[in-house]
Amino acid sequence: MRRSRAFLCCLPVLAAFLSSEGAWSGQALERPSARPKGSGAVMLQGFHWESHLAQPWWDVLAAKASEIAGARFDLVWFPPSSAAMSDEGYLPNRLLVQDSAYGSQAQLKNAVASLRAKGVKAVADVVINHRVGTKDWADFTDPQWGPDAVASDDEWAGARGAPDTGKGYHAARDIDHTKVYVQESIKGWMRWLRSDIGYDGWRFDYVRGVAPEYFQMYVEATSPSFAVGEIWDDLDVNNSDRHRQALCDWLDSVAGRINVFDFTTKGILQHAVGAREYWRLRDGSGKPPGLIGWRPENAVTFVDNHDTGASTGGGGGQNHWPFPGDKVMQGYAYILTHPGIPCVYWPHYFDWGLRDHIRALIRIRKEAGIGSTSAVSIAAADNGRYAAVIDGKVAVKIGPADWSPGAGWVLALYAKDYAVWTR
Q: What is the Cα Rg of the chain in Å?
């Protein structure tokens, strides 16, 4: 094994200084020694698939700045802000034009500035694997590129570039990143996003489409405070090592300069809670089975995003790989108490009636100093429950079966099928 390195409203949030005895059965646990916590950041995905319908979305983000900061989010991931053929922004055409279905450039800058004024950093969704033309297949403007900017194995007959360095994307033109002028154009655009729009970091879309060396090049040229890439591959829940090893390999290829979304943890976690197979949340070495078990400092954990989940509490959106709707809070109890950099999905926080629950979990995480590399001691993992102690400061149980960390702990938060204790 290589490791280079919706019962949607649960019960009301209950915080109580209660005895751990009684219905909660369990044994006292040894307190593990803490290690450096790494990043303590928590990110909010600041949109869903249909956010462009609430025009202008940038004004919605600006109006929520105080609330977002008050919930102690450190980062907000913005949807793609360049002009695009698709309202969602994932088929960009004029990169330098920041008027989109989400609002005007002025409104975008105000949203970014409003968050930054509250101490919250803005993360841009950067789509550079592919691009569409301004009016046709590949008439690229703002910035202007020629047919040699399109990979030769693209579907477009006029493509004159080198072969694609990654996987193809059939809905748009695959860009040839071996061209120096394309590289310099993208660097200049991203530097401008930082200096003029005010973005602090990057979320790279579909990084499988371009060789990793180019993403590393763009990060080194722009010095973001945070960067994360999307690698979404098929997962065999009976062999998660292969899946997370692929994430580790990509991390090594960019020298760990860019984090990745922990799709392994999402897949195993939602299968475990859905099938009541909580034993899957402990691997053969006694660690979490996702990327957080091997490379937690680079793992961005999440329950759902704009691709996998619904847009609102009433549904809508893509729903390609949703977390079981009535068990979402079990997911957040897990990722917000465990290592990695947690990312909260906008609809779950603002639309599902879970705001108080999620906010309480973030508070517990922050006050206990839980971070991306916090130590996990798994105490139980069977058909009815999963339980663990993190840094010896926070204990968590998910699942319908009872469990307690024992004497000396205070029950801080509980609702249907989850509970959290603190020292």
A: 22
The yes or no reply on domain 43-375 and CATH 3.20.20.80 is yes
Element holding 253 (H helix, E strand): helix 240-253
- Give CA–CA dist 286/32, Å, rounded: 14
Nearest Cα residue to 47 out of 244, 288, 305: 305
E strand segments, 196-307: 201-204, 226-229, 259-261, 299-302
Return the exposure string of 226-247: e unless at least 16 CB atoms fall within 10 Å of the residue's CB, then b: bbbbbbbeebebeebbebbbbb
Active site (annotated) includes residue 205 = yes
Q: Which of 67, 87, 155, 230 is catalytic?
A: 230
**pLDDT tens by residue, 4-28:** 433 333 333 343 322 332 233 333 3
- Note if the pTM is more than 0.85: yes
88 in active site:
no
- Active-site residue (options: 205, 241, 262, 417): 205
Structure tokens at 176: 């040839």
**What is the per-residue pLDDT across 37-75, written as a single tens digit (0 to 9) for each?**
589 999 999 999 999 998 899 999 999 999 999 999 999
Q: What is the DSSP letter of 150?
A: B
| Structural domain spans, the chain | 43-375
- What pLDDT shows up at residue 315? 80
At 92 the three-state DSSP class reads strand
355-368 and 328-335 helices, crossing angle to 10°: 10
